[in-house]
Amino acid sequence: MDSKQLFANIPILTIEGKLPLAIPHITMDSRTIQDGSLFVCIKGYTVDGHNFAEQAVTKGAAVILAEKPLAIEGATVVTVSDTTRALGILAVRFYGYPSKKLNMIGVTGTNGKTSVAGMLHAMLMELGEKSALTGTIGFNLNGELHPSANTTSDVLTTHEMISRANGEGCSHMTMEVSSHGLVLGRLSGVEFDTAVFTNLTHDHLDFHGTMEEYGHAKSLLFSQLGQNLTENKRAILNADDEWSEKFAAMTPFPVYTYGMSGNAMFNAKEVQLEKEGTSFVLYCPQGSYPVSMKLLGNFNVSNALAAIAALVAEEYPIQDVITALEAIPPVEGRMQKAQIDAPISVFIDYAHTPDAIEKAIAAVEDFKTGRVIFLVGTGGNRDKTKRPIMAEKASVADYVILTTDDPRYEQYDSILTDLSAGMLHDRFACIGDREQAVRHAIQQAEPGDIIILAGKGHEDYQIIENTKYPHSDKEIAENEARKKFGS
Asked: How far apart are CA 355 and CA 394, in angstroms?
């Protein structure tokens, strides 16, 4: 791209050297340098990109963007006051404002982001659209899954993915939008057409500090819809969550509400929870409609309402939207039933907040015939305040196994002590090694029992110190069940 156009109107402090006529590539990772690259030095929590500037030049970088003067030969050094902010502008320009060429849907909230985003992506494909999805599970481009590092990727990767989706002919791209991503500028330059809010509950206070700051971070998605009312944009808000009123005030665009309460525009009544799916009657401005879906639990009824509202707000016919919902399978790792030929039921779920744990257990209460065995873990070196609350919510289960998710650098005993402080009965075990904890859950089960393995969901790894080791709750449970029940 032309260098003058790329750097136009960016407040530059100094330039040491001469800018090349064109920039063929931008990166913030010195391992991906190409000949002539612009390397952007970003100060992260653990790594400072300024320390890799010389290495970037050695590999072929022609321009270094930094926040301080660097004595480097062989490349032009451009300094600005904030490389993160500058990178957002550079990224959207370099990729040609790709989000303007797609219908962009952003989904934010504490719980349900992955489910709602996954539903929307799957339903759009059922409706005959080409669709892309990015979030916790990865980057799904027209049904082909590619890995991604974070729920909300860095700003360069974000615009590169949107550009790829546009190049593949997608009409829509749905993005899980994390509070971290909003605050850290990972969504700079992304033009959303639809903003969806699921709920706000206790999480990430180690990063945000207070619920007020956490809520403010989520509200940025709605304020960033902008003020240009010649554009066709919309907000989809959960009427059952009090934060929705605050988010509605952040945008001038039309607001569509959904929820389990009667005052929502899209609401559900006569909910029937079953072992293989859920049915309800949808009430909305278009009328009332019976719905039968393959997803489990009241919380997934709420998620389904969010997806329905978002698509109807885009003027897809209501009956077509319902038909698409009824056709899609459960989202991977979200109350997903493991295929086990045994007299027990095992569900894999991502629940890692107090609210999500409560809803996961409630999802199976209506059809349980034996005990509910609930395995709950939490990550090391993260928000400790929610740990006893998580265990308290898990205490509703008949038997609880306290374990870890990604222990990182924290000792098992530290995590388990915090969790066990919230238990309301003594029918629980503390097993720090997650693989052993999953095996214990299966070993304890008797015919008719329901096991919920919460915290990891679709993830196929566990982080110990700073290394990812292979780990799958689903595979471990299936193998252990075969041993126990001979299936």
From this structure: 10
Tell me the backbone φ, ψ of residue 460, rounded to 5 degrees. Answer: -115, 30
Distance of CA 477 to the CA centre of its chain: 25
Per-residue pLDDT tens digits for 150-193: 556 789 999 999 999 999 999 999 999 988 778 787 888 899 99
Residue 450 CA, chain-centre distance (Å), reads 27
Identify the CA nearest to 384 among candidates 348, 344, 411.
Answer: 411
Lowest model confidence (mean pLDDT) among 16-25, 221-230, 345-354:
345-354
Q: How confident is the model at residue 364 (pLDDT cuts 50, 70, 90)?
A: confident
Nearest to 264 by CA among 255, 272, 273: 255
**Residue 219 clears pLDDT 90, i.e. is over it:** no
Three-state secondary structure call for residue 199 = coil
The pTM of the full predicted model, rounded to 2 decimals, is: 0.78
End-to-end CA gap in the chain: 60
Q: What is the pLDDT of residue 412?
A: 93
Give the CB-side neighbour count of residue 126, counting CA atoms within 13 A.
19
Contact 435, 476 (CB under 8 A): yes
* Among the listed residues 452, 261, 264, 462, the one whose alpha carbon sits nearest the alpha carbon of residue 363: 452
Query: Is 38 a residue whose pLDDT tops 70?
Result: yes
Q: What is the pLDDT of residue 284?
A: 96
Query: What's the confidence (pLDDT) of residue 203?
Result: 64
- Length in residues, the chain: 487
Measured CA to CA in angstroms, residue 320 lies from 106, 126, 251 at distances of: 22, 9, 29
Contact criterion met (CB below 8 Å) for 95 and 159: yes
Could you tell me the two tokens for 193? Answer: 């057409």
337 contact partners, CB below 8 Å, separation of at least 6: 276, 296, 330, 345, 346, 347, 348
| Residue 414 in tokens | 């530290």
Closest CA to 187 of 176, 197, 198: 176
CB neighbour class for 479 (10 Å; exposed up to 12, middle 13-18, buried from 19): middle
Q: Rounded to 5 degrees, what angle do the CA atoms 161, 163, 167 make?
A: 115
- 357, 454 Cβ separation under 8 angstroms: yes
How far apart are alpha carbons 150 and 190 in whole angstroms? Answer: 17
Task: Report the mean per-residue pLDDT for the chain.
Answer: 91
Q: Which residues contact 392 (CB under 8 A, 6 or more apart)?
A: 354, 422, 423, 424
Structure confidence by residue, pLDDT tens digits, 306-361: 999 999 999 999 999 999 999 998 877 778 888 888 889 898 988 888 888 988 89
Alpha helices in 67-185 (DSSP H): 83-94, 113-126, 155-167, 179-183
Range 300-333 burial, b when 16+ CB lie within 10 A, else e: bbbbbbbbbbbbbbbebebeebbebbbebebbbb
